[in-house]
Fold this sequence. Notes:
mainly alpha, 2 domains, 8 helices, globular
Amino acid sequence: xxxxxxxxxxxxxxxxxxxxxxxxxxxxxxxxxxxxxxxxxxxxxxxxxxxxxxxxxxxxxxxxxxxxxxxxxxxxxxxxxxxxxxxxxxxxxxxxxxxxxxxxxxxxxxxxxxxxxxxxxxxxxxxxxxxxxxxxxxxxxxxxx
Length: 145
């Protein structure tokens, strides 16, 4: 399955399938291996992934303090892909600096995810493509605070 522009249900099914394959000791694709690493960082999502019939259609409302686990895990995957190809340029170095700052990958990824989400939100708000300079500035601020 190509994940370049997946639907909400395709993204959710991807995570459900990766988790089920792992639990059934089936072979995982390279992308599923990365997804599994993200899933294992978030044991609070395991119950969700164990119940696709319940959570495939679940709506999440950020204004009510709800976190969408599928969006959260997808942001992890996006950041890890950006780090792997160093796009935007400098993100790989920022990730390394944040890993040192936090002493772990999770904190570093969450900082970058905050920046990615902010740049996406700003782009949507302004009706423009994401601004890589804003994204990089946010990363630098995370490193320096």
